[in-house]
Amino acid sequence: MVSPAGFIGQYRHALDEKGRVSVPARFREAMESEEGEGGLGLYVTVGLDRCLFAYTPVRWRAVTQSVRTTARHPFASRDARRFQRQFFASAAFCEPDAQGRILIPESLRAAAGLRRDVVFIGVEDRIEVWDAEAWIREETQGREDYERAAERALDLGGDLDAATRRHGDSATKEEIR
Amino acid sequence: MVSPAGFIGQYRHALDEKGRVSVPARFREAMESEEGEGGLGLYVTVGLDRCLFAYTPVRWRAVTQSVRTTARHPFASRDARRFQRQFFASAAFCEPDAQGRILIPESLRAAAGLRRDVVFIGVEDRIEVWDAEAWIREETQGREDYERAAERALDLGGDLDAATRRHGDSATKEEIR
DNA sequence: CCTCTATTCCCCACTTTTTCCCACTTCGCG
DNA sequence: CGCGAAGTGGGAAAAAGTGGGGAATAGAGG
Predict the structure, then answer these.
(1) What residue in B sits closest to A163 (Cα-Cα)?
(2) Protein residue closest to D17, using CA and C1'
(3) Minimal Cα distance from A90: which residue of B?
(4) How far is CA B21 from each of CA A76, A110, B50, B95, rounded to the nearest angstrom?
């Protein structure tokens, strides 16, 4: 069953020659639950650290909201325009076909260096799409730095529960096949 | 399907000898949905950074409003008037033919340095038209700053838990001027 | 005022790309 | 061992993109 709260786990799939890839079934369900709330599909854009970020329509609205306020006026500073361009131009709305696959545009595949094998990663409110090899490197690297990064990124002083709970229920079940 | 929120993505097309280009199908649909609300077509004018700005009739009304008020600014009145003149004088309403192509007037093509290959870019509430090579340069330039800015913008938009939000600030602060 | 020319507009035709659908394989589960 | 769900591949239909002919229109020049 899907975790109601957010996306967790990692799933390995293959891109075919047309650039299509199956959305992991677990993620698909969460995506469908938002039907009527903004269409069926995922907004995919260039993420950080050479991967793609994918959001459900509802989450996407929240993300664009903050980008919009970065430069609310179309004739704002040059930097603001550049950022807006980069952000919106690299995004795409990907709708699944009857088999639950989405087509990832060439420009996005190139941006994340996706080849044949890709990995979908649930990261709470977004899904990340990695080239399989790149993900292995990132994962390895991440494991080493895990504790150190956690200490910097999370506030270990106060809200221990929230951070711990989340990792507790995900870990064992969702391994890559 | 159309992205419900605004224009996103990038599409490369070719100008023919008559100065026509296909409007990307994704954008065309959004344009059509406004029929009856102000006609079928795009308002195209000189944009910033050597590209063209294109708006649907509905958006155009909003933009003219904001340009008008900008011009009232007491300190920038001279520049504002100049900008206003340029903006409106070079604007053209381009209606698509049966194939979904619009004819971009020679003066606008020259203003944006459009040659054969052009790129349409969705930037939320406007469409930008770039010469293909110029866009590649712009994109390359923008990418450097992109990750830095994205770290901040994406954090603000997501539905992050309290711990992350509290420390998202300190994590990225050092990298922002 | 008429004619000639250049431009615009409206189709038709062709090619490429995208979308849709069907079918096969694999895997998990009872 | 069978069944259904998930993942993958590929062919066919539909849509999108592109090129170009020729009628209609407008403008310049005689």
Answers:
(1) B163
(2) B22
(3) B9
(4) 29, 26, 18, 11
